[in-house]
Amino acid sequence: MKPRSDVPFFIVMAGLSSCFVVLIAMLIAADISFTSFHEFRHAISKPEIRASIRLTLLTCTVSAISSIWVATPLAYLLTRFRFPGRAIVDLIVDVPLVLPPLVLGLSLLILFHLPVGDWTLESWLRDTTGIAVTHHWPAIVMAQFCVACAFAVRMMRGTFQQMDRRAEDVARTLGCNHGQAFFHVALPQAGPGMVAATTIAWARSLGEFGPILVFAGATRMKTEVLSTSVYLELSIGELGSAVAVSLLMVGIAIVVLVTLRWIGTGIAR
């Protein structure tokens, strides 16, 4: 029996697959065509936008590093061990992924101002450490971390699930305890996954908006990041500047993704 041609199969698959890719490419092309280099340079030259860029890079980096520090051990425990309440922990980890962004920001605001006796978490932190959270830059990191860490946990769980755990079992039969097997066997193998999880956490932090707006506010030169810069520029009718900042965010995201994936490829090799 003569095999049928694969051409119809590839036409259908390519047609369906290209829908999303073409849509995203058209969105970026529309932004580029809407603005000009002069408008882009004018927007970037604004002091408040430059301050927003610096604060964005700082907070995204802090939240991404914090996320991978928390996500790696949490994902390892959820993947390798069975313990009471594991299903509940697994469910809680996924809550930020499905929770509406504004609800997450409101929940953070309530948490830090919920009275416990004569104290609130906000007042206790301010009195003991001198750090104010709400409507200051730590609130930005907290809002970014809540979502970015959930994505990092999902990524690291996939990493540990794909790893062959026999090497860890062998290490324990040779005298290693669970901690030594984790640090000397599992963690080095998880390097590329950690890079990927950090990439996802950083990129997700970059695009966070709703929780930041509610919990940190959008005060210029204080709690303004690039995502809120787009909102503020739109609110005063500066559509060209808003598009310019949007393109800057796209450029930063692409540079970070390409760079970290290149690093991850090198680690894998």
Automatic annotation (TrEMBL):
<keyword id="KW-0764">Sulfate transport</keyword>
<feature type="transmembrane region" description="Helical">
    <location>
        <begin position="55"/>
        <end position="79"/>
    </location>
</feature>
<dbReference type="InterPro" id="IPR005667">
    <property type="entry name" value="Sulph_transpt2"/>
</dbReference>
<feature type="transmembrane region" description="Helical">
    <location>
        <begin position="136"/>
        <end position="156"/>
    </location>
</feature>
<keyword id="KW-0472">Membrane</keyword>
<keyword id="KW-0813">Transport</keyword>
<dbReference type="InterPro" id="IPR000515">
    <property type="entry name" value="MetI-like"/>
</dbReference>
<dbReference type="Pfam" id="PF00528">
    <property type="entry name" value="BPD_transp_1"/>
</dbReference>
<feature type="transmembrane region" description="Helical">
    <location>
        <begin position="91"/>
        <end position="116"/>
    </location>
</feature>
<keyword id="KW-1133">Transmembrane helix</keyword>
<feature type="domain" description="ABC transmembrane type-1">
    <location>
        <begin position="53"/>
        <end position="260"/>
    </location>
</feature>
<dbReference type="GO" id="GO:0015419">
    <property type="term" value="F:ABC-type sulfate transporter activity"/>
</dbReference>
<feature type="transmembrane region" description="Helical">
    <location>
        <begin position="7"/>
        <end position="30"/>
    </location>
</feature>
<protein>
    <submittedName>
        <fullName>Sulfate transport system permease protein CysW</fullName>
    </submittedName>
</protein>
<comment type="subunit">
    <text>The complex is composed of two ATP-binding proteins (CysA), two transmembrane proteins (CysT and CysW) and a solute-binding protein (CysP).</text>
</comment>
<comment type="function">
    <text>Part of the ABC transporter complex CysAWTP (TC 3.A.1.6.1) involved in sulfate/thiosulfate import. Probably responsible for the translocation of the substrate across the membrane.</text>
</comment>
<feature type="transmembrane region" description="Helical">
    <location>
        <begin position="242"/>
        <end position="263"/>
    </location>
</feature>
<dbReference type="GO" id="GO:0005886">
    <property type="term" value="C:plasma membrane"/>
</dbReference>
<dbReference type="InterPro" id="IPR035906">
    <property type="entry name" value="MetI-like_sf"/>
</dbReference>
<comment type="similarity">
    <text>Belongs to the binding-protein-dependent transport system permease family.</text>
</comment>
<keyword id="KW-0812">Transmembrane</keyword>
